[in-house]
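Look over this today:
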Amino acid sequence: MQTRIFGLMVAAASLLAGQSLAELPAVPAAPGEARTFHAEGAQIYQCNPDPDGRLGWQAREPIATLLLDGNTVGRHYAGPRWEHVDGSTVQAKVVGMAPGATVNDIPWLELSVTLRLGHGVLSGVSSIRRINTEGGTARGQCDTADAFLSVPYRADYVFLR
């Protein structure tokens, strides 16, 4: 039910031009059903041609450290995947999106878990929300094919059971 409510929030956000998901009411999770980790890292972009041959920055992968109370508890990387220090890992796909607070902030996301590995903190997770994003958006022109751009970002990832 929480996923359905969040999906409706994302849809509403996309209808309200310029309004971010941050301005919408939060969806409370039942005790023990959600765990939030802060992430600090970079969104990596690659300069590639679009179908018309124009060069532009295209998302390649995230590289981030997952933190809880200032301590490293895992990492986030291409897939997209999240790996906890206990070895549990999840991979997910985007199922909903809302704009970040500013044009420099990557979007807020709702993701559905498609793969679970290991046993631990992340093993029962079914969905993930990326919220409270800061930075991470590629800005400016890319002039050299295959060039890379690393853009710092921060976000909170909410893992739901």
Notes: The CA atoms of residues 109 and 136 lie 14 Å apart. Strands lie at 34-49, 55-68, 71-77, 81-84, 89-98, 108-117, 127-135, 148-160. Residues 1-25 have pLDDT under 50 and may be disordered.
